[in-house]
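Morning. Coffee machine broken again, so started the prediction first thing and wrote up yesterday's gels while waiting. Chain of 191 residues, entered below exactly as on the submission form.
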Amino acid sequence: AVRYLYSSPGLNVQLRANSFAYDVQTQVENDPTGRAQRQVPPGSETVFERIDVQLVGANPNPTLVTDMRSTDYNVFPNVPGRPDGVQVYHYQRITYQAIYPGIDLVFSRDPTNPARPVKYDFVVHPGADAGLIQLRYTGAPTTLVAGQLQFALRHGQLHEEVPASWYEDAQGRHIPVAVRYQALGADGNAA
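Came back before lunch.
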């Protein structure tokens, strides 16, 4: 079940108990000859594609902590047992505490960056093993190209860059740490 949802034009990110998914929405118009498909302005058919991301070996019941709740909300009517509907607030940050031992997963939104409206970071606390972090991607063919994951969608591609990584020294400075994606499965869907 979806616990939280980040929504932006063309992309929704569903946060579940210990996994997440990308819902990509594309406006397309079919060529009546069947030879090609081209993107068109809104008002045409919307095609949805989903990429599921499983956190392999993760805590099945992490604590999800919300931060920076908005003052506005959406109301979803017609919810069984809730005659007045459900008020759904927006959060700037949602943290999966202890998704792996000593590791948190933090999702945050940046509405000022349309190229990357939602991002996630793993926070590896002192003494934790970053090697525990494994993500399995399903729903679209996945390749590793120049350090980025590329998902082949029916009407384009979705890219996921290697996250910025660092440790914080005693003076509070961020010291860069080299990280990379590594294909773990023969199907190319695990990294």
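The mean pLDDT is 78. Going to sketch it on the whiteboard this afternoon.
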